[in-house]
Write a structure and sequence with these properties.
Distance between the termini: 148 Å
Largest sheet: 7 strands, mixed
Helix content: under 10%
Oligomer: single chain
Number of strands: 51
Strand content: over 45%
Number of helices: 2
Shape: elongated
Radius of gyration: 51 Å
């Protein structure tokens, strides 16, 4: 037994045998030095054999693979199987083609399975092998390559069986690995359906490949395949069986070709339907997701062309449109608009051909469209070719394409305000203003554009589609020269308010602050009305006493002293300001403006606001008790001694002067309403 000697020498030498846990290729290499392998391990070392003859050998060690070669005949099926000592689970069969590439695999189970089935596509040298991946499954075997017969139809396009339209094609799927291919010549311009019928539980499946190699329709094979023949030429129909674990089928099938309908317009650029621009619409029909209708027209440089379609029957928009130039580059696409048709348009940069592709998902039904020549663009697209205008005026135009810009040029004067406001039109437009250097100085997508020019120059006003709908349409814009700012923005440039005379204003931008001024008189009471605005009040003499009384704003103002009060409008758009004199304060608010009184006294007065203080002066001797208003009234009275110090007042209103001289009584609100509270002052 020479292999024992080899093992003994390896054990006694300086090198030891590598364990079985080494990688398979290393183990195989090691054992090739220890054993006399009965058969080669690769196709290049294969043992030649003949079909239908017994093949014997031994798997000597883990990862041992014995390879055999034979001459396979084109279109013939073969089976390779082996008988091995039990247990057989885990043995693997391989099939290699002439290029030494593995093309099939089968694992032997206990009890054994069906073996390894394969088909030779050409007459060539083929290879089979048996291999054990585990060390415990080794030992002798006997195998055989069995020739099973010819395939009725080839598996490849180069050897496909001819199938003429109008005829029925038949065949048999002999084995699970079988594919039968048929060559079907068709002319473009029609919709077809291929049906495969078989009696087997696992129905036959079909796949159709167009003359340009496209899968028609895309997706996995099914029992029927509907497609649009958009190219003339040979269509390949591949027949297979649904997944099966049984390799031997011998299942017959029948192929049928149904003409569904003709296609009214081609689906490719090279066969597009030629159109001549006309305001008269034309009709067509879409046949579902398989269909796309393509049109072409010749455009003249500089002119605008529009391809427009109506809302589809039973739908909510027109069909999907895509426009390409003659190089196939997309230049426009339609936008979805609820309840509206769809359009594509182009202002042609050069004379040449253009294409429009029309589709709409799975929609099947008629459509109506028109190709129109709209002439030349109504306004230039930049400052160089802008339409000159003088303000005030009305700007009208038509944004014919999604990239169209209508530009207008006009002269501005420094300090004047210009306003552009949409009044009507179908286009959702973006308004832009550029200065003399071409710089964008203002842009609005909603509302009006208002601009105060910092210099005198020629500006450009642009109208283009905004990003909301991107649907071409018309516009009408009122362009107005509003003149200089109506009111100054600082106290130095404030507009004088005259009581009883309303003043209107307009804030042309959010940064605009309109300032007004009036000369307030002490002891004079005012009402300030601001309709459509909000204001702030300031005075160089100090805090402005005011009360906000109503909306629209009505502000009560009670000046502390004579001096200017500045009214700044900082909120609102168009507004009106009105100043009114309410009356005169009946009594002064401080000791310097006190009303002289004597005692005993019963005096009627009014506290005009929450901030009002009525001050009275009276000469009182020291040590004589006095009494003021009874407690519980909504006023509070404070008594100041001649020195300015408070004199204590008890809960009944009584007090006793500590020094003789002029005392001051201060009447102010202690609760109650914020405005106009009458009172009675009692001193006895």
């Amino acid at each position: 037994m020479p292999w024992l000697g080899a093992l003994f020498l390896a054990a006694c030498g300086s090198d030891s045998v590598e364990p079985l846990s080494s990688p398979p290729d290393l183990v195989s290499s090691q054992h090739s030095r220890l054993y006399e392998d009965d058969h080669g391990d690769a196709p290049s070392e294969a043992t030649p054999v003949l079909p239908n003859t017994l093949i014997t050998g031994t798997l000597d060690f883990r990862a041992d693979e014995d390879v055999f070669s034979f001459t396979a005949q084109a279109q013939r099926y073969y089976r390779f199987d082996c008988v091995v000592d039990s247990p057989a689970t885990g043995w693997i069969f391989y099939y290699y083609n002439a290029q030494h590439e593995r093309s099939g695999t089968a694992v032997v189970f206990d009890p054994p399975g069906y073996g390894l089935y394969f088909k030779a596509r050409a007459t060539e040298t083929a290879y089979v092998s048996v291999r054990s991946p585990m060390p415990e499954i080794v030992g002798p075997y006997s195998c055989q390559i069995t020739e099973l017969g010819m395939d009725d139809h080839a598996d490849t396009a180069t050897s496909a069986s001819s199938w003429a339209p109008g005829n029925v094609a038949t065949g048999t799927i002999e084995y699970g690995i079988d594919t039968d291919v048929f060559a079907l010549p068709l002319q473009r311009g029609a919709f077809y359906r291929v049906r495969c019928e078989s009696a087997a539980p696992n129905e036959c499946q079909v796949k159709v490949i167009s003359p340009v190699g496209a899968l028609t329709p895309p997706g996995m094979p099914t029992q029927t395949a509907s497609f649009n023949a958009i190219h003339s030429g040979t269509y390949l129909v591949e027949v297979t069986m649904n997944w099966t674990s049984t390799p031997v089928l011998q299942s017959s099938f029948t192929l049928h070709l149904d003409l569904l309908e003709t296609d009214d317009h081609a689906d490719t650029l090279e066969h597009a339907t030629a159109l001549t621009p006309s305001p008269t619409s034309f009709t067509g029909r879409l046949s579902g997701a398989l269909d796309q209708d393509v049109f072409t027209f010749t455009a003249t440089q500089g002119r605008v062309y529009r391809f427009a379609c109506d809302v589809l029957q039973g739908g909510s928009s027109g069909p999907t449109l895509l426009m390409r130039n003659d190089a196939g580059v997309i230049v426009d696409g339609s936008s979805y608009n609820q309840g509206r048709g769809t359009t594509v348009s182009i202002e042609t940069p050069v004379t040449g051909g253009y294409f429009v592709e029309l589709s709409h998902g799975s929609y099947a039904g008629p459509y109506s469209c028109a190709l129109e020549d709209l002439g030349f663009d109504d306004h230039g697209d930049s400052s160089v070719v802008a339409t000159p205008v003088s303000l005030t005026t009305v700007l009208t135009g038509h944004l014919e394409t999604r990239t169209d810009v209508d530009a207008f040029s006009f002269a501005v004067q420094a300090g004047r305000i210009y306003r552009f406001e949409r009044t009507s039109g179908t286009a959702s437009s973006l308004l832009q203003l550029r200065n003399a250097q071409g710089q964008l100085v203002q842009s609005v997508g909603f509302g009006a554009l208002t601009y105060e020019a910092p210099d005198s120059a020629v500006y450009t006003f642009e109208v283009r589609l905004d990003g909301s709908s991107r649907e071409p349409g018309t516009f009408v814009i009122q362009a107005v020269d509003r003149g200089p700012d109506d009111h100054g923005n600082t106290p130095a440039s404030a507009t004088l308010l005259v009581p009883g005379q309303p003043v209107s204003g307009w804030r042309h931008r959010s940064e605009d602050k309109d300032v007004f001024v009036f000369q307030a008189q002490e002891q004079t009471l005012y009402h300030l009305y601001c309709t459509g605005c909000e204001v702030t009040l300031e005075s160089p003499t100090g805090w402005v006493r005011r009360l906000h009384l109503a909306d629209p704003a009505r502000i009560f103002i009670d000046p502390l002293s004579t001096g200017p009060i500045y009214v700044t409008v900082n909120q609102g758009f168009t507004y009106e300001v009105l100043l009114e004199v309410v009356g005169i304060d009946d009594h002064g608010d401080d000791v310097g403006h006190a009303t002289p009184i004597t005692y005993p006294l019963r005096l009627m007065g009014v506290l005009e606001s929450l901030y009002d203080v009525d001050v009275f002066a009276v000469d009182l001797p020291a040590g004589q008790p006095r009494r003021t208003n009874a407690p519980g009234s909504p006023q509070a009275i404070q008594v100041l001694a001649p020195t300015g110090q408070p004199v204590p007042v008890d809960v009944s209103g009584g007090f006793t002067p500590q020094v003789s001289g002029v005392h001051h009584l201060l009447m102010r609100k202690d609760g109650g309403p914020s405005m106009s509270l009458p009172y009675q002052l009692i001193l006895d």
